[in-house]
Amino acid sequence: LVLLVDDEESSALLNQSILEAAGYRVQTFDRTPDVIEHLVSDEPIVLVTDYDMPEMSGIELAEHALDVDPDIKIILLTGRGDETTAQTALRMGFSDYIIKPPDPIAFARAVQRAFHQRAGDRHHRAMVAWMKIELGRRQDEIRDVTLSTLAAFANALDSRSPHFHGHSRAVSLQAGSIAATLGLPPEEVEAVRIAGLLHDVGMIAVPDSIVEKEGALTEEEFAIIKTHCDRGVEILQPMEHLGDSIRFIHEHHERLDGSGYPGGKRGDEISLGGQIVGISEAWVAILESRAYRSGVPRDEGMDMLLQVAGDWFLPEVIQALLDSDVGML
Asked: Within the chain, what is the greatest distance between any pair of CA atoms?
């Protein structure tokens, strides 16, 4: 069920028709107080609200909605030129924002993603509760189930954009190849491989509008991108059987000279596994095309990495990449 809040009749009718054409059941309101009693429901709800409402702004309605139902996902409708408000909404935890009048495909996709997020949040809590009970006596079975579930989740995230298809698998293969080339023990190679597969789990927190943006990111948008390392740890932390993989995921954007994120770690503060996953992700990203550029040829891309040897990545890690290049298969 989508609760649509908009006091402009023509806008409400347009948005309702877009969502109903996409297969959603829509309940429309032209006053914010009227929607509050409908926030508690036995079925999943996504709230789509206009920012500029007469009695209570969309932001204020969202704050109330989250108090009533912490699982509710909210999309803000806002006019052109009001991107600052939209960025504020994202920092507050809104699922996405849509500029009016909306592009029908982007609008329907944002609502679909909001429902996926809600389902993912509930699934995550259920998994955590279940694992607390079972973890002590079924370690191997839980590990296999968890990895299968999270691998499917990573594949679903990669499918958000045609530019990311196969990204997580490619990073995982490259990271495992580097770890093996460096002669790490089998259990460490496996931890690195798992970290490569799950390194972008936290990207569920980043809206499609940012992932697919064709131009340069604003400081606000890049700050949201950078939260994915911490968010990934939040998702995976209860799964203690993932071991060092969680640390490697957290550190895969750290750089030796302190220019990385999220912690600005330097030198030996960064684990070898974090370095391996980091250079694997960087290498695959160089080869892949993006919404705003084409992929870089291998020789040119390798020259780019050699230029940051010792500054971003350990020379021996870069050499191991040269000796074990998997890249995009």
From this structure: 66
Nearest CA to 329 among 277, 276, 288, 281? 288
Tens of pLDDT, residues 72-126: 888 888 876 666 777 777 777 788 888 888 889 989 888 888 888 887 777 777 7
Is the bond preceding 54 in cis, omega lying within 30 degrees of 0? no
Strands 2-5 and 46-50: parallel
Q: What are phi and psi of 166, to 5 degrees?
A: 80, 5
Amino acid, single-letter form, for residue 263: G
Count CB atoms within 10 A of the CB of residue 213: 15
How many Cβ atoms are within 10 Å of 263's Cβ, its own excluded?
A: 15
d(CA 135, CA 166): 30
Distance of CA 203 to the CA centre of its chain: 1
Please state, in angstroms and rounded to a whole number, the distance separating the CA atoms of residues 269 and 276: 14
pLDDT, tens digit (0-9, with 9 covering 90-100), for 5-49: 988 889 899 999 999 998 999 999 988 888 887 877 667 788 998
Of the candidates 205, 222, 201, which has an alpha carbon nearest to the alpha carbon of residue 213?
A: 222
Q: Are 111 and 48 in contact (CB under 8 A)?
A: yes
State phi, psi for 212 to the nearest 5 degrees.
-100, 10
Q: Is 229 exposed, middle or buried (0-12, 13-18, 19+ CB in 10 A)?
A: buried
CA distance 190 to 175: 10
pLDDT computed for residue 129 by the predictor: 72
For 280-299, give the DSSP string: HHHHHHHHS-BTTBPPPPHH
Mean pLDDT of the chain: 84
